[in-house]
Amino acid sequence: MINVIVPLRNITRQLFFLSSVTQKSGAKLLLFFLLERLCPVFFRIYADFNAFKACYLVFFVYFRKNFMRMMRKKGIIMSLTALMLAMSACTTHYQVSGVSRTRLLIDRAYDGRIDDATARFMQPFTMKVDSLVSPVVGKAAMPLETFRPESPLSNLMADVLVWSGKDYGEKPDFGVYNIGGIRASLAKGDIRIGDIFDVAPFENKVCFVTLTGEKVTELLGQIAGRGGEGISKEVRIVMTKDKKLKRATLQGKEIIPTEKYRIATVDYVSHGNDGMPAFKSSKDRNELTEEKDLTRMVLMRYVKECTANGKMLESKVEGRIIVEE
Fold it and tell me: 248: phi > 0 → left, psi -120 to 50 → alpha, else beta; which?
């Protein structure tokens, strides 16, 4: 199997050659649209090279012979439809048999040989970026990593959400942070601004919502079903190996179905995303909207406060989520 991707610059030259034949600016706009919309669909073909050439020939010959006529007629939409049908006929016997992924840490192990020309070109940009992300804002007393069902960093992120409530006049009963939103680990030692951006790179903001006890139990069941998420220290979950919730407590007490509980989370999760649809039933939403409310900015404030108090960042696995038979 060959992954054939046509260089867009070659297609651009040919398409704009056609537009120069028509001598109409409208044709250029249409061609630009086609380049933008059709090429990614029809030219990123996972197929043998002969099938690729056949598809490309249909595309080029059709336009060269028919583009002038298309521009003169009102039936341009019909012509484009015919083109798309012709292109869609260029199929092969290849099929996707499976998709897999893994997370690869890119570090100095891959820097065995640095290209001098590239390094010179990047130097002014590197200096600027380094000046922004290199300042140290705190220290980690231990490596902080993320894994399921419970991990030091996912515990910390959920605790930080609860901690942030004081800045917003909130007193959450517990916090939930989706592990999928944590994109890096923190090594032992210095914590730089760039490290915090790596941990929370998304534009997610802090959000506070209310759920009934019934829905909280449902939420914790969904967290168990996902194999664990970041939950704050107030929560204890016991789940089975097949990811079923056995029991849960909040602040050491049973969860009362009719009681209302305040939860700190991120806006993305608060809308029921990432496998936690119980949040769709939330009420009294307090969604923050400013840059300072981004989860990475909240984490940065937490790290700086720890530093100001002479503390290092610490977190550990402490039995918030227990897996039983």
Answer: beta
The DSSP string of 27-89 is HHHHHHHHHHHTHHHHSEEES-HHHHHHHHHHHHHHHHHHHHHHHHSS-HHHHHHHHHHHHHT
Measured torsion, CA atoms of residues 188, 189, 190, 193, in degrees rounded to the nearest 10: 10
In the predicted structure, residue 312 carries a pLDDT above the cut 70:
yes
How far is 292 from 301, CA to CA, in rounded Å? 9
User: Is a pLDDT exceeding 60 seen at residue 67?
Assistant: no
- Residues 6 or more apart whose Cβ sits within 8 Å of residue 207: 264, 265, 266, 267, 269, 270, 285, 286, 287, 288
Which pLDDT score, from 0 to 100, does residue 72 have?
A: 52
Find, among 261, 268, 287, the residue nearest to 208 by Cα.
287
User: How many CB atoms lie under 10 A from the CB of residue 94?
Assistant: 13
Q: What is the pTM of this model?
A: 0.66
Strand 235-240 to strand 174-177: parallel, antiparallel, or no bridges (unpaired)?
A: unpaired
**Encoding tokens for residue 77?**
């939409």
Mean predicted lDDT score pLDDT of the chain? 81
Q: What is the pLDDT of residues 207-223, one digit of tens each?
A: 999 999 999 999 999 99
CA atoms in the 13 A half-sphere facing the CB of 8: 11
